[in-house]
Amino acid sequence: MADHMSDDLSAAGRDVRAFTDELRPKYPVIRNVAGEWVLLRHAEVVAAALDHERFSSKVSRYLQVPNGFDGEEHTRYRQMIERHLSHEALTPFVPVFESVAAQLMAELPRGIALDAVNDIGAVFAVRAQCQWLGWPAELEPRLLAWMEENHAASRSGDRAWMEDVAEQFDGIVLSVIQPRRASEANAPDDVTTRLCREVVDGKLLTEAELVSILRNWTGGDLGSIALCIGVLVAEVARQPRLAERLRTAPDSEMEAVINEVLRLDDPFVSNRRITTCPVRIGGQDIPSGARVKLNWTSANRDETVFDNNRFDPESNAAANLVYGVGKHACPGRLLATWELRIALQELLASVHAIELVPDQPLEREVAPVGGYRKVPVVLT
Questions:
Q1: In a domain, 2, yes or no
Q2: Strand, helix or coil at 333?
Q3: Cα 328–330–336 angle (5° rounding)?
Q4: Is 48 a domain residue?
Q5: Measured between alpha carbons, how far apart are the two ends of the chain, in Å?
Q6: Which of these, 11, 32, 43, 6, lies nearest to 298 by C-alpha position?
Q7: Starting from the edge strand earliest in sequence, which strands make up the sheet with 55-56, in order?
Q8: CATH code, domain carrying 49
Q9: Average pLDDT of the chain, as a whole number
Q10: pLDDT value, residue 6
Q11: Residue 261 contacts residue 231 (beta carbons within 8 Å)
């Protein structure tokens, strides 16, 4: 067993995927420099994700609704949240997302270098989420600035800075929900207001619970959507034939291709668990109370599961862990899937070609996220 793994996996441009690709064939489980047990193979990651008794999700000192809960408590909050993320609830927003994407793509400059992550992904993510949640468009500059600082703080590893940035975002959320709660009669009829009126166990959601849910829906999702769009744009820029195929592909085929591209390069690297008893997994004995990481990025590249990582959206779909697995899988999977598809469809429809900039190399993100920090492209 390897006795350490750098948590700064992609520092100085190092690709986290390459490092775990080296480790995974030899070591299904390793222990990193932070003392966490990291599961690298598909079988062990899935086993832990589905074992809710021995691998608890109560890992943070901060309130995390619902994925920081276990058992029936998780189920009750999850059911409430899923009402807002169902096919029926999200369908009315499809034309809204299409309009947001079409307007953004029309605004993008042609013939000069721009960054697919920040100029396309981040802006689309903020505008789409604000439209979905009913947040004022005036928040866009503030949210974009927050995303940039949040990534910088995460890259630095400075916990004080990260906590300060988290508090800044809580302030943004409170600025939206407090007026709605102070004057319910005058509150707009939107997703955020409806969430403010939700009841669990006979009680209205507390302000702290609302902040946690909306932090997850926005603070987490904005960065993830931006990074995913960066990965997708880089891929279609590298593969013009794939771009041509996707221009006329039906929605289902495009979504399958998107999921396969993200399987191979998933910006959302890992989730945490804590053991509730001694566990033996992947040939390794892990004590009770140990911190465990489910490394989705590594598991999604397990060559024994994905035919040596042959690009095959249809065959690989069933084992794809981009959105997790089990009852803690991402509740916003449908929302993210539709947003990513719509953004890519509108981009491809609005340009003749997407080309990487020869003298500006792609820059990888650093732990704890994956994907790219910058994807310089030219639209023609």
A1: no
A2: helix
A3: 175
A4: yes
A5: 50
A6: 43
A7: 29-31, 37-39, 291-295, 270-275, 55-56
A8: 1.10.630.10
A9: 93
A10: 43
A11: yes
Q: Is residue 301 part of a domain?
A: yes
Q: Total structural domains in the chain?
A: 1
For residue 193, give both structure tokens. 């207001």
pLDDT at 16: 80
The amino acid sitting at 200 is V
**Pick from 324, 325, 310, 301: which is nearest to 40 by CA?**
301
How many Cβ atoms sit within 10 Å of the Cβ of residue 134? 17
Q: pTM of the full predicted structure?
A: 0.95
Asked if residue 4 belongs to a domain, the reply is: no
**Distance set, CA 37 to CA 1, 5, 306, 378 (Å):** 11, 10, 24, 42
What tokens does 346 get? 């509108």
Closest CA to 337 of 262, 284, 268: 262
Residue 135, token pair as written in the block: 């947040």
Q: What is the pLDDT of residue 150?
A: 87
Determine the angle formed by the axes of helices 221-238 and 240-247, rounding to 10 degrees: 110
**Domain encompassing residue 243:** 11-379
Output b/e per residue, 151-174; b: 16+ Cβ within 10 A: bebbbeeeeeebeebeebbbebbe
CA distance 183 to 166: 26
Successive 10-residue mean pLDDT values, the chain, 380 residues: 43 72 96 95 98 97 94 97 98 98 98 97 96 96 91 86 92 95 91 97 96 89 93 98 97 98 95 98 98 97 96 97 96 97 98 96 89 96
* Helical ranges in 215-301 per DSSP H: 221-238, 240-247, 251-264, 296-299
Q: Which residues pair with 29 in a beta bridge?
A: 39
Which long-range CB contacts under 8 A does 174-183 form with residues at least 24 apart? 174/207, 174/211, 176/133, 176/135, 176/136, 176/139, 176/214, 177/207, 177/210, 177/211, 177/214, 178/207, 181/207
Task: Kindly report the three-state secondary structure assignment for every residue of 35-100.
Answer: CCEEECCHHHHHHHHHCCCCEECCCCCCCCCCCCCCHHHHHHHHHHHHHHCCHHHHHHHHHHHHHH
pLDDT in tens, 253-277: 999 999 999 999 999 999 999 999 9
Amino acid at 263: R
